[in-house]
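pls ignore typos typing on phone
iron/sulfur cluster + seq
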Amino acid sequence: MILQKEMIANLFDELSNASDTGKKVVYTFVPGNLSELIHAFDMLPVYPEINALQSGMRKMSGEYIREAEKYGYSEDVCTYVKCDIGMMLKGNVGPTGKKLPDPDLLLLSYTGCFTFMKWFENLGKLYPHAEIAMLHTPYQENGKITPEMTEYMVKQLREEVIPKMEKVSGKKLDEEKLKHVLENAVKVEDSITNIFNFTKNVPSPIDAYFAGVYYIGPINIGFRGTLQAVEYYEELYKEINYRAKQGLGPVSPEGEIDEKYRLVVEGPPNWTSFREFWKLFYDHGAVIVASSYTKVGGMYDLGFRHDPARPLDSLAEYCMNCYTNLNLIQRTDLLSKCITDFKADGLLVNSIKSCNSFSAGQLLMMRTIEEKLEIPVGFIESDLVDPRYFSFSNLKNRLDSFFQMLEQRKIIRNQMETAL
Ligand code: SF4
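k done
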């Protein structure tokens, strides 16, 4: 936690000094992020979704969302977008209290969510001096990445994205440097996979959702190909390995959790009441052993690795492998695999009001998994950063019923095992 705070504070310091140092600034998205290319050009990344979720955790998103709605954005628009635009309209002061620089480049890596496109179309109007580069990622409609899809993306990288980055940074792409950054990315991807695999232990030494969102922080905010990230994840691995060896459970804000239920969660968390939301789980001894949300920035556990020997091909494959770019059958299979591999007792869906990209098809996935695996499933609703859509009592009622169902199922299973 200390290391991560330092890394983030340094990044935001660098961003606020960008006009003095002359470093160019790229606004981009987490899914399908091209961090390694950004580092290869010595540019600095800004992730609007990360700023939005941090504003949510700092209880500032409600004000930003209202500002964007006053400006004309409808109530149905993704609240990350409204929070980001509202923050910009209010002076663009970032989560550390320092003003964020305007973008020199809007790098739209489009991976499955149409909102990304509309979001950057609007940022393009608000920052008319920024260059815009768009990388279109073909959707995995048939659940496969074909050579033609990779070729289509590499062509865009060569002909659209890299030339724009060269123009903005004033540098030619240094391929050796990119390879080196990708080597670091591979080490980080190995580490994060090993870290999340610790939840196969019973009890799990970590919570893969409520703590997991912190663990994926450095990867998702642009550190993936850096030496700092390699060191951070080595340190994190050591700490969790120690907990696993001691047979310790996850740590919540109120102490160690005594694991009673193991869950897989589909969908992002609520950020405006993150602590209260987590408490609804750990009060019942519920530990999340896997979640789709922690895979949003990359599917490393399924084997994807950047490849320094095929830099552009692997950047393309990374984008196409993002969770939001998978079809519903792939997402259902992935959740089923998590439930089986991590010995989960149930599946919980947190349906996010403003995120169509995650919410579409969630009920179908949930019912399919319930039938296939015969496990208890639960469905709750909240929002990312709009505090108007977090109803504590509603969530508590639904979760209490879900945990009762899990308890009943455990009793029946134990009785059957005894009878056998
Ligand atoms: S709709 Fe969902 S995936 Fe798309 S930008 Fe908003 S939060 Fe992200």
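Residues 49, 78, 80, 113, 115-116, 324, 355-358, 384 surround iron/sulfur cluster (CB under 6 Å). Residues 344 and 381 are 21 Å apart (CA to CA). more later
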